[in-house]
Every structure is written in structure tokens, then in C-alpha cells.
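User: C-alpha cells for GST C-terminal domain-containing protein, please.
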Amino acid sequence: MASTIENFYQKTATAAMKDWPRDAVLYQPYEEEQILLAENASCLAVRTYLKMLNLPVALEQRANAEFMSPGGKRTKLPVLRVENFIYAEFDHIVTFLEKNFNKSLSAPLTPEEKDQMRSTNCLVEHLFTTAEQYVSWIDPEVRNTVTKKRNGCVFPFPLNHVQNWRKESAVRRQLRMADYLHEGIDTIMGEVDHLCQDLSSRLGDKRYFFGDSPTELDALVFGHLYSIFTMKLPNNVLALTIHKYSNLNQFCKNIDETYFSVKGK
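Assistant: Done. Predicted C-alpha cells:
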């Protein structure tokens, strides 16, 4: 009953929103010291999408960003605060912007193209996130030299070890449910390579996946690929797997220059 009332209030309140507020804030972990590969990809995808829509938002880096859920549980990142409401992760934020502000990059697409885009979004998010989590938490060298240090750096001893154990356990459960926990790295990289082949073929020599204008898919793919390219890890198997697709490399360069360079801002 309480959740029903809360949902009704939220829909009623947001339905009145017409103009993008000036005080919208996007929360994420600290980039230099704390954020992990999969989290960085998700946060960058949302930041890119907001830039593509020309919606200004203040970026705040918080040590407790993943614990900002109103329910007190871990939140999928990033976290967007608009007015008095909080929305988290790429898909939910995209839906919120479309329903409450009529902001969408995929509006010009045909129904068939929209279906194709959504199915590709799901595959990209699932497979790249799985591979990023696997490399970060299952590969022992990356886990012990990078992941645990970054994930635990904002917590005092011995809480840092407790938080690392909790996060690793949660990731292992997710990988087990997806039937990837006991797969070898070669198997997972083979699936990533197959996905990159498909993305490279879809992109071709176009600037974006559906022509001259970006969509949600472009923001999502850029978030994952650029994060993989730029985050330094002792095992760079993911970067090596996608680096051989020259048009995907150029795709990342184009978006970075258009939306994140000083000239493109």
C-alpha cells in the first residue's frame, strides 16, 4: 500500500515537469581513486547521453554513491537527482527522461529500428558488464592489485576488507546466475569479440549506429568501449579484444571529441 502511494505521488509530481531543472545532479564514485571498470562504463554512458540531449547536469563524486538508494541498498550507478526524486542506472534514466521531459534520441527511428536498438542495448549492457565484472573480480591479478584497492579505498580498516568481501560475493552471485562464473576468460572474450564484430558490422563507415544522429545505443557503447580503452589494468585482454576493430576506435574518438573535448563542449 505504501509503495503504491509512493509510486502514484512520484508519477503525479514528475508529470508536471516540463523544463529541465537547473539543479539536476549526477552522482558517481571518485574517478581517480575509487570507481571500477563496470561502474565507470555505466556512469560515462549516462553522462554521454545527457550531453547528447544537451541537458546540463552537475557531476558530483561521492564515496557513498552506490549506497544512495532511498531503500538503503546498493544502487546501480550512476544516480541522477532531479528535483526531489532519484533515478539510477542507464535504462531507468533514459525512460525517465522520455516520459517526464519528452527527451529521447531515438524518436526519429522507425518502430523496427527502435526494436533493434533496444535488443542491442540489452546485449551490449549484459555482455560488456559481465566481462568487465569478470576481469575486475575473477582475474586474480586485477582483483588483488587494482579492484580491491579501489573499491576499499574510501573505507577505514577493517571495513574496507568487509566491503570488498561483500562486493566480490555479490559479483560472483551475478556471474553464477548468468552461467559465467566458471567459464574461462577465453570463452568470455570470445563472446565479447563476437559482439564487437556485430557492432563493427552495424556501424560500418557511419558516424553513429543509425546514421548521422546519435541514439541511446551510441551513448551506451561509447561508455563501455571508452572505459575499457582508458582504464589501466594489469590484464588488458578486454582492450586488446576490441582494439582491433578500427571503426569502433574511430567511433569512440568522434564522440569524445564532439562531446567531451574543450572544443566540443
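User: Anything notable?

Assistant: The longest strand covers residues 25-28.
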